[in-house]
Amino acid sequence: DDWELKICCMGAGYVGGPTMAVIAKRCPKIRVCVVDISQKQIDAWKTDDLPIYEPGLLEVVQECRGRNLFFSTDIATEIEAADIIFISVNTPTKTQGIGAGRAANIKNCELCARTIADVATTGKIVVEKSTVPVRTAQAIARVLQSNEKGLKFQVLSNPEFLAEGTAIADLMNPDRVLIGGQQSEEGLAAAAKLVSVYAHWVPREQIITTNLWSSELSKLVANAFLAQRVSSINSISALCEATGADVLEISRAVGMDDRIGKRFLQPSIGFGGSCFQKDILNLVYLCETYGLNECAAYWNQVILMNDFQKKRFSEKIVASMFNTVTGKKIAMLGYAFKKDTGDVRETPSMFVLRDLVHEQANVHVYDPQVKREDMWIEMDYTCGMNKDNTPRLEESVVTAPDAYAACEKAHALLILTEWDEFKTYDYKKIYDSMMKPAFVFDGRNLLDHDALRAIGFEVHALGKPDPLKFSDL
Ligand code: NAD
Ligand code: UDX
């Protein structure tokens, strides 16, 4: 047992799994074990049918599993063995009680700290990897310090910036690694130890250290700024549709200003995913807690704009299709919140699906990675819609085996996720199989609209001039 270091990660989800797999790959002499309270989750990590889909992840897991990467539900043993313990558990928006609908629930983080304080027999470095409200490290430290064994713990903040669908690439080559720690001798030593782990593959100048509170808050701020860009461009897409300007031309023109930058200016039917909305609401609630109501309202507007964009898209579908979709078959291509993931948490597609079900359409969904049962779980969790309170929900939503089946005899085809494979289909064949007029609503501006119009489709795109409505000068 001559490991350079032993790491335990509590939480084997979208962050814990890929992050630890990449640490194991890049640090063969470090022993990494990911633990979880969910037996099902841990069992899946031990097979080749991993619990999450992420390009390149399986290869990394296969390379390291059994060598220096392990998965276990024996939490106590693994905590005891570890030098560094990451807390990478979910911190969802509270659904009831104080701050319901806005505050992040950190009960899972506190529980992890209590478990560590309970079972550890030597001091540890405890790393907050989960996204948490600023000053959570203080709560974690107090719980840890309340152990009656006289053990000393150091708490670090090390937020994760990976995006789903590109997690492995992001982890292998991060823009930066952020480590916050207490500015005491012990705190700085603990931070230096974590720096040395990342320094196995991340250039030293890209690993930055700060105080604890800056590190915790930077994560919320980064997500708020990113989401703000999406809401900003989405607000402009609405103005484009009213004026005949083209939002993609605007993204290009505006993004070429180095100060603004090209990325994250893609209009969409709204941002989704487990982080943006949750983390902005967390920031809004923090501002309110400190009596900063103008700051709270400012950031909350990013969410309101996103809600508007999602609603606008459903309304456009119904209005264009002669104000009724009742009984009509609609093909929905893409359900995940972005391409290259099967994750449906907060996916904007769900809100379009909800609205179409309320309009009594028959929706045929095709997504290369989404599991049907995950659609229902999220629909119930986020929209409160389930088969008990929505008659015919399961009959009016069909999951199609492929896009061609979804489109056959459909009145409209919706593009909701920007999967690459959607660009490769034979749209003439699809057109021939559809009802006429055959509508396309491209919520990602993914397809070649001129080519579709030449085939005969009536195309509606986000923030793109509608040739039926606008002409040049
Ligand atoms: P997840 O739901 O995929 O995984 C969390 C896991 O933690 C689950 O498997 C759950 O069973 C486990 N867990 C809960 N309580 C536990 C406990 N007491 N002991 C052991 N395991 C426990 O969540 P995620 O998407 O991986 O997110 C984790 C954290 O990382 C969140 O705070 C999130 O905001 C943040 N984050 C997520 C992303 C992302 O893209 N998903 C990116 C950056 C940061
Ligand atoms: C985000 C952050 O990017 C990441 O740094 C953080 O760690 C977790 O949250 P993620 O939610 O996985 O990552 O994906 P991201 O690529 O940020 O996309 C979020 C949503 O915004 C998606 O629904 C995406 O389609 C949408 N989006 C993104 C746009 O609509 N337009 C864009 O230009 C970019």
TrEMBL record:
Mind listing the GO molecular function terms for this protein?
NAD binding; UDP-glucose 6-dehydrogenase activity
Keyword Oxidoreductase on this protein?
yes
On whether Oxidoreductase is a keyword of this UniProt record, the answer is yes
Active site, renumbered = 275
| EC supergroup of this enzyme | oxidoreductase
Q: Name one GO biological process term.
A: glycosaminoglycan biosynthetic process
The residues the record assigns to binding NAD(+) are: 11-16, 36, 89-93, 130-131, 164, 275-278, 345
List GO terms (cellular component aspect). nucleus
Q: Which reaction does it catalyse?
A: UDP-alpha-D-glucose + 2 NAD(+) + H2O = UDP-alpha-D-glucuronate + 2 NADH + 3 H(+)
Q: What is its EC number?
A: 1.1.1.22
Member of which family? Belongs to the UDP-glucose/GDP-mannose dehydrogenase family.
Q: What is this protein called?
A: UDP-glucose 6-dehydrogenase
Q: Which organism is it from?
A: Fistulifera solaris (Oleaginous diatom)
